[in-house]
Amino acid sequence: MTTQERWRAHVDAWKSSGLSCRAYAAKAGINQRTLTWWKSKLAGAGATGPTPASFVEVTEQLAAPAADVGVIELDVGGVHVRVRGRVEAETLARVLDVLEARR
């Protein structure tokens, strides 16, 4: 199953669940903002579909709890990356390696 197919299934399940975005995301164990982003992306995809390299899902928890406020913002090959909280250098390096490889 592709990433797009997986997120389409989540968006469809959310719509038919009758739950709020927050409630569905919590129940499914997914990020609420990612769910709404995919809802928007899939609605606007039309017949052409999304660009394969336009979105990179990061499944590993990167940020520390919200109490540790701080933001890192980077533009890598046309991709904007925003990370809030503390991030381990090794984890951020792996994310940047993936983005660089997609250029």
UniProtKB/TrEMBL annotation:
Top-level taxon: Bacteria
Record-given protein name: Transposase
Lineage, opening ranks: Bacteria, Pseudomonadati, Myxococcota, Polyangia, Nannocystales
